[in-house]
Amino acid sequence: MSYCEEHNERLHKLLPRERRAFLNETHLFLRWVYEIVSHPRVLDAVECVLGPDIMVWSSQWFPKFPKDKAFVSWHQDATYWGLTPPNVTTAWIALSPSTRENGCMRVIPGTHKTPHLPQRETYGPDNMLSRGQEIAVEVNESEAVDLILRPGEFSLHHIAIVHGSGPNNADIPRIGLAVRYISPDVVQSGHERDLVLLVRGKDPYGNFEVANPPDRDIACGESPIHNEALERKARNLLPKDNRLSDK
Ligand SMILES: O=C(O)CCC(=O)C(=O)O
User: Fold this and answer.
1) Residue 85: is the preceding peptide bond cis (ω within 30°)?
2) 179 lines ligand 1 (CB under 6 A)
3) Cα distances (Å, whole numbers) of residue 219 to 5, 160, 177, 188, 245
4) Tell me, what DSSP letter sits at residue 230?
């Protein structure tokens, strides 16, 4: 929270999708975020899905201020991350209550098992995704399940599941850290080798560059590893004119 408070004024001046430039890959330069992403309770759950060898490919904060219009359109991460095979799971870790009223994440069960849906880029100003990407066909919202969490709880979601979230209509913030875990056999389609952290087990594949975890908190913008990770992700994932963030 102190990190968010420190950058509160700057964050408020940015569009939701621009805010995220401050909020990506903080596990690479903030020790306390690293401690969250490598917490044994989180990794035990991830291990049930991915097996004993686990790497953090990315992490992103998704903060919604009280009465914030920011939302996340329905989308499938698998469409634009370029990661195969889909041995990828996101732990969405709540640092505030996450409820229907303050815009909790919602998923459409079973959609990770059906063919990927077409997606379009809207660049909507209140959309928290960097290109405002959204599913281009109708999503049956009556099937949506709310992932209601208390602070300290987390959910896991598959890279291909249809998910999104609405605005924050409450007087309290909604803060979540989305941590993207992969198993080391995953390959990325971009030209750059992304920087990852090995948080459990071993990496017999060498598909990614394994970075060292931070041993202390470093100021935002002053960590060479963080800057490098942001640039590589942007070069892999974003069109040249929109390299503000990686999602
Ligand atoms: O925080 C949200 O509401 C959406 C998060 C999300 O899209 C993700 O974790 O992939």
Assistant:
1) yes
2) no
3) 14, 34, 19, 29, 18
4) H
Which atom of ligand 1 is the closest one to the Cα of 62? 1
Task: State the pLDDT at residue 245.
Answer: 44
Helices (H), 163-242: 224-237
The predicted-structure confidence for 133-176, as pLDDT tens digits, reads as follows: 999 999 999 999 999 999 999 999 999 999 999 999 999 999 99
Q: Is 40 inside a domain boundary?
A: yes
SS percent in the chain: helix, strand, coil, step 5: 25, 30, 45
- 14 close to 125: Cβ distance less than 8 angstroms: no
Distance CA 59, CA 92 (A): 10
> Is 179 a domain residue?
yes
Specify the number of domains making up the chain. Answer: 1
What's the domain range around 150? 2-242
Residue 190 half-sphere exposure, CB side, CA atoms within 13 Å?
Answer: 19
247 occurs within a structural domain: no
Check pocket membership of 144 for ligand 1, CB cut-off 6 A.
Answer: no
Q: Could you tell me if 128 and 70 are in contact, meaning their C-beta atoms sit under 8 angstroms apart?
A: yes
| Cα distance between residue 117 and residue 46, in whole Å | 26
Dist. CA 77 → ligand 1 center (Å): 9
Give the domain CATH number at 104: 2.60.120.620
Q: Give the residue, 185 or 240, on which the prediction is more confident.
A: 185
β-pairing, 209-210 vs 195-200, is parallel
Cα gap 23→95, rounded to integer Å: 14
